[in-house]
Amino acid sequence: MRHRSTADRWGLAVSNGREELIQAGAPRATTLSRAAIHSGWHEREAIQGLLWVAPAFLYLAFFIAYPFFMSIYLSVSNARVGSPEYHFVGLLNYQRLFADPVFWQTVRNSFVFTIGSELIRLVIGLPLAFALNRQFKGKRMVQGIILIPFVIPIALSSLAWKWMFDSLYSVINWMLMHAHVIDYPWQWLGEPGLAMWSVIIMNVWRGFPFSAIILLAGLTAVPQEVIEAAKIDGAGPLRRFHYVVVPIVRPILLVGLLYSVVFSFTDFSAVWLLTQGGPYNTTHVFGTYAYNIGINAGDLGQGAAITLFIFPFLALIVILMLRFLRRE
Fold this sequence. Notes:
There is one protein chain. The protein is mainly α. Helix content is about 75%, strand content about 0%. It has helices spanning about 5-40, 45-75, 90-100, 100-130, 140-145, 150, 155-165, 170-180, 190-220, 225-230, 235-265, 270-275, 285-295, 300-310, 310-325.
C-alpha cells in the first residue's frame, strides 16, 4: 500500500493537476460569463431583430396607422377646419356622399384615370422593354434618358405640361395645326373630355419608365436557352412571346402592375397641379375631391369619409390580384 506503482503515481498527479487547473480557471470563467451576460445583451438575436424592425414599425405607426384611424374617427364626426369642437354624427357623412352626384362622378373618373393610364403604360412599356433588352450602342445613355420623366419633380413636370396644354401657347396645338390634324387650337384643359385625356397623358408620361423597368427586369429573367429551344422547335416571335416569355414574366408583371395601380388610384399631385379637378368636376379623383371638400371647403368629416372610400376599392383590387398571382 505504501509503495505505489509509477503508473498510479502518474495518474494521481494528472488528476490533481486537472483539479487544480479547473479550480484556478473557475473564477475566471465565471467572471467572463457574467461580463458576457451584462455587456452583450444587445448582441442577442431577438434584441437585434427588434432594433432593426423598430424604425419601420414607428414609421408605419405614425404615418400610416395613426392617419388611418384618425380618418375613421373624423369621418363619423362633424369636424370642421378652425373649429375645436366636433361631435359624433354616425354615418351622416356617408349618407351625404351617397346623395352627392359629384362623388359618384369622382368614382367614375378615378377608374377611368387608373384603367386608361395602366393600359397606355402597358402598350408603351412592353415594346420599350423589348427594345432595351437588346444590345446596341448607347444603351446606357438611352436607359438614363428614359428615366428622366420618373425622376423629375412632379411640380416641375406639371408646370411644363400645363404650358404645353395651354390654349394660347400650346406646342401640341402648334404641331397638330401644322400637320393639318386640327383646324383650331384645342382647349385641352378647358373641355371635359380633353381635360381627362390631358391628365392621363401626363400620368402616363410620368409613370411609363417604371413599367418599362419592371418589364425589363422580367425579360432579363427569361433564360436564353429556352428562347433558343423554342426557335429550334419552329416557334415564331408571337408564339415564343405567348408560350415562353409571358408565363415567366407574368408574376413580375403582376407585382409591378399592382404597385402602379395603387399609385394611379391614389394620385393627387398630377391632377391637382394640372386641372384642380376641373372643368366642371370632370377630372376630380378621390384625392383631389377629398382635398377640395376637406381643406378648401373646411368639412373635415366628409373629406375623411371620401378618403376612406379608397380603401375598399383598393383592398378588392389587391386581393384579386394577389389571388391571381398566388395561382401563378
